Structure formats: C-alpha cells, structure tokens
User: Which sequence fits this backbone?
C-alpha cells in the first residue's frame, strides 16, 4: 500500500502554529502591567505569630539541664504507660492533620 500526498502536512500544520503564536501574543497584551498585592489582616497576624515563634529556641535549655541532672543522679524514671499514651496521642494528631 502506498500513501500519496504527504506533502500536504506542512500546509495543515502551519495555520495551527500561526494561530498558537497569534493567541499567545494576544494573551500577552491582555496581562495587566501593574501588579499589586493586598495582604489580609489575618495573614498579617499570622506573619507576626510566625515571627514570634521563630524567636523561641528549639531546645528548652532549662528542661535539658533538669533531665541531665536526674539521669546523672539515677532518679530519672520513665513510665511505660505515659510513653505509650503520648505515642497514641501523637499518632492520632498526625492522622487528623
């Protein structure tokens, strides 16, 4: 089987390409030149809170000192039930969020 007329493909494609170029040029013309941003009061408050959170240290030095002292003194005891309860609560929070 021999297919003839393959030279017609560029004629079919060219108008499509021309339309794409014309469309993208018209879209560029419709884009506003002056962009502006308005931040809601809620977003401003959230930004303030995030700034304050970033100031809080990741490690509570006083608590670390207390725990080290208890471990060194041999008085640090961990309740297995308390650990399991905390693990379950953390899992439940992660599942919800």
Assistant:
């Amino acid at each position: 089987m021999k297919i003839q007329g393959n030279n017609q493909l560029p004629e079919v494609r060219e108008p499509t390409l021309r339309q794409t170029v014309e469309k993208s040029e018209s879209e560029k013309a419709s884009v506003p030149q002056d962009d502006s941003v308005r931040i809601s009061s809620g977003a401003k408050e959230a930004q303030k809170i995030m700034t304050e959170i970033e100031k809080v240290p990741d490690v509570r030095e006083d608590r670390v000192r207390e725990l080290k002292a208890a471990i060194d003194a041999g008085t640090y005891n961990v309740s297995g039930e308390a650990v399991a309860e905390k693990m379950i609560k953390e899992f439940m929070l992660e599942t919800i969020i």
Q: What stands out?
A: Residues 31 and 89 are 50 Å apart (CA to CA). Residues 42-96 form one domain.
